[in-house]
Amino acid sequence: MYTNLKFYIDGSWTNPTGETVIDVINPADASVAGRVSIGTAANVDKAVTAARKAFTTYSSTSVEERLALLDRIIAAYQQRTGDLALAISEEMGAPTWLAEQIQVPIGLAHFQIARAALEKFDFGHSQGNNEIVREPIGVVAMISPWNWPMNQVTCKVAPALATGCTMVLKPSEISPFSATILAEILDEAKVPAGVFNLVHGDGKSVGNALTSHPDVDMVSFTGSTAAGIQVAKNAAETVKRVQQELGGKSPNIILRSADIGAAVGGGVAQIMLNSGQSCNAPSRMLVPAERMAEAIAIARAAAEEWTVGRPESNAKMGPVASEAQWNKIQRLIQAGIDEGAKLVTGGPGRPDGLENGFYVRPTIFADVTNDMTIAREEIFGPVLTMIGYDDEEEAIRIANDTIYGLAAYVQGEPAEAQAVAQKLRAGQVLLNNVQLDLAAPFGGYKQSGNGREWGAEAFGDFLETKAIVGFR
Ligand code: NAD
């Protein structure tokens, strides 16, 4: 589809000067879907220089000008939704229904939400004799993963544009197509030259050059905890602000007061969505011990509804995004079996008839204890672990017994669920299988990250606060 992806620097499309070109693999059948150049430190320097120059004027644009810009972007995005859906399916294997109905609309929603937040945002007010001003932080390096490729790029680009920052984006080398289309959308919407720049590459090349560039003021990173640690170390050399959205191992507590059919069925649906490749997926289901047998039966039936097939088929689940990811999931499924968890459905290998792509069988383990590898490591695949508990206190203890703290889920009678939510160490707690709210702050406690994305709360990370003391 895309054979020679260009970089977008200072308002122009430039042919990459990087020597290395890598294949982009279509996970549906392991065929080559396109090729992308790996940028160099020189490409990064050019992009950062352009962003720095553009910051001088873009940082002082009015709110009205930035609202008009977001309006133009929203209109241009709406013209390209079909292209974006196709690109996402080809690069990371999302089924057509998922790409069209969720992956692409989320990207649009982030621009719409940022626009609404910008209309009301307080960029300055007086405090006694002082003036408190909130100013854009400067040049932002953005590094994103492949699992929700539009969501993870637009949730950075939209608030950065709204607050007056300029930026250089390095999307995942696994999913460079949709990010290139976004750059075309921003170009079409007449984002001023240098405000948004795109350089393709991997972590070792462009990622490293961006996070250690002295003229970058902030790094907004989404990816694994291991890479996030490396990013923070690089950024520390020049004291950059680091916003990190990292891994998760989110608990889903089914309280005794829950409607067990809806609670367990909804939990299975959320771990199977996007082939389990969501950082906030409820991967540990905590079930009252005496209801485990019933919960297992419901979970098995719910998982078996998740048909697996090629993205353009009618299947509910596509492949996982890469061979590396497929291998990692297989290793962890095997670890679950070896450590004595009970395999309820699914298991190792590919589903019948899907021998070529990176397809995983929807898998459920029961009799899991929280010290098993499958309860501790992020699997990032369609694999649910079911853990029994005796009382609410134990459920809360198990839920919090993880290095992560991105999301948590509670199912049960509302007042009881609300009380449990207060005790969970996670950045977002979702009650009773409620739909995700993209205007609510999103981010992690503990090793799941720093800072918050989404909605008005995201603006804070892109702003500096200045106190002008004795202003009046
Ligand atoms: P990854 O960490 O391998 O890569 C993420 C991005 O970082 C890619 O663009 C990659 O090229 C880049 N990168 C890798 N090493 C780097 C380095 N040393 N310096 C700079 N950049 C580097 O992760 P992935 O496999 O693409 O994505 C899966 C991971 O992302 C999972 O752990 C998942 O939980 C996490 N994730 C978190 C969120 C969130 O919001 N918290 C959202 C989605 C994914």
TrEMBL record:
Instruction: Provide the family line.
Output: Belongs to the aldehyde dehydrogenase family.
Q: Where is the Aldehyde dehydrogenase domain?
A: 13-468
Which keywords belong to this entry? Oxidoreductase
The cross-references to SUPFAM superfamilies, in alphabetical order and at most eight, read:
ALDH-like
InterPro entries, sorted:
Ald_DH/histidinol_DH, Ald_DH_C, Ald_DH_N, Aldehyde_DH_dom
Name the record gives this protein: Aldehyde dehydrogenase
Is the keyword Oxidoreductase assigned to this protein?
yes
Q: Name one Pfam family in it.
A: Aldedh
Organism classification: Bacteria, Pseudomonadati, Pseudomonadota, Alphaproteobacteria, Rhodospirillales
**Which domain of life, per UniProt?**
Bacteria
